[in-house]
Design a protein that fits this description.
The structure holds 2 protein chains of 2 kinds. Chain A is an all-alpha fold. Chain A contains 17 helices and no strands. In chain A, helix 1 (2-29) packs antiparallel against helix 2 (37-48) and helix 5 packs parallel to helix 7. In chain B, helix 4 (193-206) crosses helix 7 (278-290) and helix 10 (422-430) packs across helix 13 (461-473). Among the domains of chain B are: 2-25 and 123-290, Rossmann fold; 399-473, no CATH class. In chain B, the strands form 4 sheets. A 6-stranded mixed beta sheet of chain B has the order 2-15-14-18-16-17. Classes of the chains: A mainly alpha, B alpha/beta. At the A-B interface, helix 1, helix 2 and helix 3 of A face helix 12 of B.
Chain lengths: 389, 474
């Protein structure tokens, strides 16, 4: 029975492979669309995952994990975050994600066809991480502008996946943050689950927390995020820690629930997709430096160390953004340096600048130094001193 | 003999476990083949800057000559190579230059069997090796061709002054096989335990009564017990090792057992350690106490595409076509899967002196959506598959993914047993910046292949580094 199913599976795969090859040949032959063959090729690769490719040099045995599996893992842990954001803010959260994917993948495809390089799966992660870092009130056209900027300027200008210096999702977010500060920092929805009228299904029954979509976004300043509240100018109000932990407070789509983030992060750590050094060291640095600065300059740094870690996108970024392999160092010592730097910068930016969230700029600054850090923290080999002979 | 401490191991590496189609059970002696192909070219040393050339001994026979088993057919006492013996009796039917599996052209002697399997006269050199001087033992081992089984052939190095008798401080026995499918020497260890134990004593006395360190897989308590009984405790130290690849490589083994680092671009004998494997100890016993030259060795015939995997004792030079039959389309690899060479024609490739295994891996099948597979039998450095510890894993020659640009995940740094940054070195080599690559200790690479194995972007990292080393020598 099982064997039969497997045979069927292989035959199906063979059939699809032949079909796609045929399609590719057709596309190549047709004059106006012949340059789209790379898309067909990419589609075939996406379905078959390179499962028929063979190792041509030693070692002939290769790790069972490929880039597709590597890239699907962060997306996988983002799905609960997405569900929870729908619960908090209604189906508009899903629409934001879909718009991101449509615009981001389109931008990638245009570049693939023009530059004639292969489609890479990295863009799927970029889109998901970008969408979940946006405030729920953001106008949809801004979403599209942001992701297109992130994919093109953040990644394709550098030569595509693997060659980029900056994390493309963060580049997109940073671009929106600088260009449209009010929409990115001041306008927030109050989550549906603490409204008295919401049923236990919360946002699953709504498109967005307001019934009148026409006015909702224009004057949506209905609440403030924990990060805004704790600014000395707002009166330094601390959000209860348990609210922060469960995630029932205003904030960006994916960053709310510590619980889901920590569970997802644990999965990524256990599967060795991310390295604990980046995540733990960044959060640890934020905790320690936040605590110290709070004691020394309580007027500037109203939040304690624990609040620094729990508020805003710190945990989200520590698990999903700074662990982006391409833009973080790969040596062990380099990872420590990088994580300490990003954590410290986040706390400083939050306290000393006009921006209430500092993670975005801290990561962009850190990204710039990653290649340099790598170069200077190459591990010392176990070979002994060379003997002259 | 003292068992020192708990399991010793090293930083990096990868534990493979067992794969489907592995060879189990006792060592079977195969009958002499009808024809053998013996390449003269000897791989000898391939690492580092010290050893630039391959050696090819001078031929002593010509086409049409009749030869007996054990007869020396080529030798060159001035070059760094061992004599080559005929491994079946019969007639030399051809001597031609053909491609060596590990690169380059080699004179290859073809012998057709006469079916008699007649040996040269075997005369034991001594009843007791204690009567022989170290120089005499060295000469016997050289004549018997007991060399080049591992990377540092014992008498070869001995003769050429690389490892002078006075400078050797340790004899290291490598009895830990960690490469997938390479298990013939474990079987040999059980089969020929007496010869092994005596062989170790013999090698020790030839080296001037040095300390002996035995690295052995922790899963062989019976052998450890036996060794304790037979070998005096004062000079033999046994260390159970975690069977993590590449524990058996000289540099890693010497570092784990002796806590001594092999110099950059050098070999273990430079720090006074001589590394021998099980086959070498057994062959040394046979050479000295039975007068038998090295004409056969233990080989694992295994792999997912091999019909009836087995550990066998075969004549050196046996064509692979006589050894393995493929049950499905596959790639045959001479040597282990990690640093062996793929063989396109089973007729012309044959078992070499240092061939520990002949592996054939099945070709991969096309599958849909590899990304959501559970992967109960998959092997990966990461833990993204639900690999069941009790199950034998599947193996094929598939890349298991698409070739991509490096995403700097750092897995190759994790697994590198020499603590290098393999992908940075490979990048420098690709950019033709050899000096930068050397500055990152390119020559410390032991070519274990793990960096290529773990790469999710399927970049042949090791091949780039090998290319860099080759270019640096020119």
């Amino acid at each position: 029975m099982f064997e039969k199913l497997r045979q069927l599976h292989h035959r199906l795969a063979e059939g699809i492979d032949r079909l796609m090859h045929g399609l590719e040949a057709r596309v190549k032959g047709a004059k106006p669309i012949h340059r789209l063959d790379v898309i067909v090729e990419g589609l075939r690769d996406a379905i078959l995952g390179g499962s028929d490719r063979q190792a041509k040099q030693a070692p002939y045995l290769r790790d069972a994990m490929g880039m597709q599996r590597y890239m699907i893992m962060p997306i996988l842990i983002c799905l609960p975050l997405l569900l929870f954001s729908i619960y908090l803010y209604g189906w508009r959260a899903l629409v934001i994600v879909l718009v991101t994917y449509a615009a981001g993948v389109l931008a990638e495809l245009v570049f693939v066809v023009v530059r004639r390089h292969e489609i890479t799966e990295g863009v799927l992660v970029t889109c998901m991480l970008f969408a979940l870092s946006l405030p729920p009130t953001i106008p949809l056209w801004m979403v599209a502008v942001g992701i297109v900027f992130g994919v093109i300027v953040g990644k394709e200008f550098f030569g595509g996946s693997g060659h980029n210096v900056f994390n493309p999702a963060i580049v997109g977010r940073g671009f929106l943050l600088i260009t449209f500060p009010p929409q990115m920092t001041l306008e927030w929805f109050k989550p549906l689950s603490f409204g008295g009228d919401a049923s236990w299904l919360g946002g699953f029954l709504h498109y967005m927390p307001f019934n009148d979509p026409a006015t909702a976004i224009n004057d949506a300043v209905t609440t403030a995020t924990p990060l805004l509240l704790i600014k000395p100018t707002s009166g330094a109000i601390e959000t209860p820690l348990w609210d922060l932990f469960w995630g029932v407070h205003a904030g960006s789509l994916g960053e709310s629930s510590m619980l889901l983030l920590l569970l997802g992060g644990a999965l990524l750590l256990a599967t060795k997709i991310i390295d604990w050094r980046l995540t733990v060291v960044m959060l640890g640095t934020m905790f320690v430096s936040g605590e110290v600065l709070h004691m020394l300059f309580p007027a500037k740094f109203a939040a304690t160390g624990l609040m620094q870690v729990m508020m805003g996108g710190a945990v989200y970024a520590a698990i999903l953004n700074i662990t982006d392999p391409v833009t973080s160092p790969m040596t062990l010592r380099g990872k420590w340096l990088f994580a300490i730097g990003v954590g410290l910068l986040t706390v400083l930016i939050r306290g000393l600048t006009g921006y209430n969230e500092g993670v975005t700029f801290a990561i962009l600054l850190g990204n710039m130094f990653a290649p340099l850090i790598d170069r200077f923290t190459v591990p010392k080999s176990f070979a002994g001193e060379a003997k002259s002979s | 003999m003292a068992i020192l401490g708990n399991l010793s191991t090293f930083k990096g590496g990868h534990y493979f476990g067992y794969f489907q189609g592995r060879a189990t059970g006792e060592l079977k002696a195969l009958p002499a083949p009808k024809r053998v192909l013996i390449p003269l070219r000897q791989r000898g040393f391939t690492r580092g800057e010290l050893h630039k050339t391959w050696a090819e001994p001078k031929l002593l026979v010509s086409v049409g000559d009749a030869v007996k088993v054990g007869q020396i057919i080529a030798r060159d006492d001035d070059a760094r190579c061992s004599p080559v013996h005929a491994t079946i009796s019969g007639k030399v039917s051809a001597i031609k230059s053909q491609e060596h599996p590990f690169g380059g052209q080699s004179q290859t002697v073809t012998i057709d069997s006469d079916g008699k399997d007649a040996w040269i006269e075997l005369t034991p050199h001594a009843q007791d090796f204690a009567q022989l001087s170290p120089e005499q033992i060295g000469k016997i081992l050289y004549e018997a061709g007991v060399a080049d089984l591992g990377l540092e052939g014992f008498p070869t190095a001995y003769r050429s002054g690389l490892a002078e008798p006075g400078k050797v401080k340790y004899l290291v026995i490598n009895a830990v096989n960690t490469e997938p499918y390479v298990e013939a020497e474990d079987a040999l260890l059980y089969e020929e335990f007496d010869k092994f134990a005596t062989g170790v004593k013999l090698l020790r006395s030839a080296l001037g009564n040095v300390e002996v360190h035995v690295g052995i897989g922790y899963n062989k308590p019976r052998i450890v017990e036996e060794l304790q009984k037979r070998i005096p405790q004062e000079w033999c130290f046994i260390r159970p090792l975690l069977p993590k690849y590449p524990q058996g490589e000289d540099e890693v083994l010497v570092r784990t057992l002796l806590n001594v680092r092999v110099p950059l671009g050098g070999v273990a004998s430079q720090v006074g350690a001589l590394v021998c494997d099980v086959q070498q100890a057994v062959a040394a016993y046979e050479a000295v106490l039975e007068g038998k030259p090295l004409v056969e060795r233990a080989v694992s015939l295994a792999g997912s595409a091999v019909q009836g995997p087995a550990n066998v004792r075969v004549r050196i030079g046996t064509p692979l076509s006589e050894l393995i039959k493929l049950k499905s389309p596959g790639t045959a690899v001479l040597g282990g899967v990690m640093h062996g060479a793929a063989v396109s024609d089973l007729q012309t490739a044959s078992v070499l002196r240092d061939t520990k295994a002949v592996v054939a891996l099945a070709h991969p099948q096309k599958v849909l959506n590899m990304i959501t597979e559970l992967g109960l039998r998959k092997d990966s450095h990461t833990k993204v598959f639900l690999t069941m510890p009790g199950l034998e894993k599947v193996a094929d020659v598939g890349l298991h993914g698409l070739e991509r640009a490096c995403v700097r995940c750092g897995y190759c740094l994790d697994v590198c047993p020499q603590n290098l940054a393999p992908i940075l070195i490979a990048d420098f080599v690709r950019g033709d910046k050899l000096q930068d690559a050397k500055d990152l200790h390119m020559n410390a690479c032991i070519e274990c292949g793990l960096c290529t194995y773990v790469c999710p972007s399927k970049i042949p990292v090791m091949s780039h580094i090998q290319e860099g080393k080759r270019k640096a020598l020119e």
